[in-house]
Amino acid sequence: xxxxxxxxxxxxxxxxxxxxxxxxxxxxxxxxxxxxxxxxxxxxxxxxxxxxxxxxxxxxxxxxxxxxxxxxxxxxxxxxxxxxxxxxxxxxxxxxxxxxxxxxxxxxxxxxxxxxxxxxxxxxxxxxxxxxxxxxxxxxxxxxxxxxxxxxxxxxxxxxxxxxxxxxxxxxxxxxxxxxxxxxxxxxxxxxxxxxxxxxxxxxxxxxxxxxxxxxxxxxxxxxxxxxxxxxxxxxxxxxxxxxxxxxxxxxxxxxxxxxxxxxxxxxxxxxxxxxxxxxxxxxxxxxxxxxxxxxxxxxxxxxxxxxxxxxxxxxxxxxxxxxxxxxxxxxxxxxxxxxxxxxxxxxxxxxxxxxxxxxxxxxxxxxxxxxxxxxxxxxxxxxxxxxxxxxxxxxxxxxxxxxxxxxxxxxxxxxxxxxxxxxxxxxxxx
Length: 431
Ligand SMILES: Cc1cc2nc3c(=O)[nH]c(=O)nc-3n(C[C@H](O)[C@H](O)[C@H](O)COP(=O)(O)OP(=O)(O)OC[C@H]3O[C@@H](n4cnc5c(N)ncnc54)[C@H](O)[C@@H]3O)c2cc1C
Description:
By secondary structure, this protein is α/β, with parallel strands linked by helices. Helix content is 37%, strand content 23%.
């Protein structure tokens, strides 16, 4: 493997992880992003054992766990108080296994600090419009018409709305409002659960613990409310109080969270799209992460898939005699798992976000009771953790050693309790 000149377009989880891995292999890597100083947008997400397996190989799992909140189960109740989602990590039969609720900014910091420490070149304020190929190489074209030097490889990690993809972002009917809030202490919420409440599949409210953004912070959560894209203006026009009434009616315990929300700007409306690029590989170009495949976050896999794509890319390039062969290998290793989860997410999304009644009826009356029976309970846990389809073994990855991580996970929680009792709550801007 010769050292290549590689441009990585986009500083999300896919781009940052790819930059680190390829730099460590000795390639000459340059990162580009539209932001002058790279920064994450959005609220919290779940890191699954798949994503953590990649962070583990980067030596960053402990840093992530220190900032996150270990999650033992996903639990959802319908309006009648019946449990209709109960996905437990313990059903995998691996001692200590958990998912990690983490603020996007924390995941970004963990990766970005390492990129900075490694001295990887970064070009900020670079709004990318296209690429141009010549003599087997590829250059980046910016919106102002200027062009980069040619690279052996351009990695498109520009996310779901990548301008380098020919397939447009076409939003699903439902998205969600997201806010970052202070963790509601002593209010009946369980810090080890991602909890949701549903009215049919029309309304959904959820709370995801996300740990702390830095050691001085109080613990936080991501709070989300499902909303149709075409109802967003009505939501704004209706005023916060009318919306809060709807949330209270569905989940009265959310009152301390609602009390933290005083302006609509604290809630960011995220649109989702199910989209898979027609050509993940072109000469001297590969798409990874959401630029290749994006989906609604119902199964919470996007960032984890992005990390797996980055890992596969690095391993493919290292293993192959040519760059083109390396890209072929990487795509081959990932394509089955990507197709599987794209199909599964498309199938599961209407159970949680739909204006029709029958998907929720199937969820509540058929899937929920069956899901607690073995082996369906284990299949459900495999689905949620991203391990369905066994994506790790062929990439030479393994589920992290959760027993070794246990002291970090529990000491973080203990530290968090101590700090949050002694610190008055601070107000943080919602992102
Ligand atoms: C509300 C919500 C909740 C989610 N929850 C989860 C979850 O629980 N678990 C999970 O695994 N995933 C979740 N996801 C999905 C996850 O966020 C994405 O899959 C993941 O961020 C994809 O990473 P990426 O690096 O491919 O792209 P992104 O994170 O989108 O990063 C793209 C980067 O490219 C830059 N960029 C974009 N366009 C340009 C341009 N033209 N020029 C220059 N730079 C540009 C951006 O600034 C950004 O830095 C969620 C998504 C949403 C919207």
